[in-house]
Amino acid sequence: xxxxxxxxxxxxxxxxxxxxxxxxxxxxxxxxxxxxxxxxxxxxxxxxxxxxxxxxxxxxxxxxxxxxxxxxxxxxxxxxxxxxxxxxxxxxxxxxxxxxxxxxx
Length: 105
What we know:
By secondary structure, this protein is mainly alpha-helical.
C-alpha cells in the first residue's frame, strides 16, 4: 500500500472513531465513549501487528521513520493491551483520566 492511500485510510478511520467517540459520549455517557476508545486502540494494535509497520513522526508531516518487524509487533501488542484494559475497566479509566463527574467516580 502506498503512503498516500495509507494516510487516507488512517485519516478516515480516525475521523470515524472520533465521531463515534463523541456520539457515544452524548448518547450513552463517558463510559461508553471510553469503550469506543478501547475498540479504536484494539483496531490500531491489530493493524500495526498485521502490517508490521508503525509510522513515527509529527502529525501532518511525512513519518520520520517506521518501526518495522518486532518493534512494530511489540508496539501493536502494547496498544492492543491498552485497548482491552479500556474495554474491561472503562469506569476506572474514566476516573483515572479525570473525565468523570461526581457520579462516575
